[in-house]
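W.,

You were right to be curious about this one. When I first looked at the sequence I had no strong expectations either way, so I just let the prediction run and decided to look at it fresh. Below is the sequence, 137 residues in total, followed by the output.
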Amino acid sequence: MHRILLLPFCLSREELEELGQMAERHGYSVVVARSTAKALSEVRSCSGAEGEPVRIVGVVCGGRAKKVGAGLLLLRIRQWGKKALGLPTRRIELARVAVVGGTKSLFGRRECRVGRNVADRDALLRALSGEDTFMRL
């Protein structure tokens, strides 16, 4: 199984470095999401051979989590469609970790403190160890 840690650009530099080292110790590739499109293309390139299972741990704030949820619904529909057509699908496991002090807005980052945000360490350690999977596709 290929493992990917997806980090937002709004974390502090020190936090990005520490989380990157923590992820490497658990065997994860690290992708820093500067934009959604770039993050998706990097995740595709890091995910390895076609059909190989993938585990993605994403660090997101509350506002972004709603947008990510909408994207995951579309991914679930796509996987279902591929299965219905008899095409091969890849097993995908997803885990989500909150940004401490993230946004309170419905969508977006109205109260985001870019460069000073930190991830919930306990939740991240659980997610990197294979616990706290919230969706399997």
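Here's what jumped out at me. The beta strands are 2-8, 29-33, 54-60, 92-100, 118-119, 133-136. And, maybe more interesting for your project: Helices lie at 13-25, 36-46, 62-84, 121-128.

Coffee later to discuss?

I.
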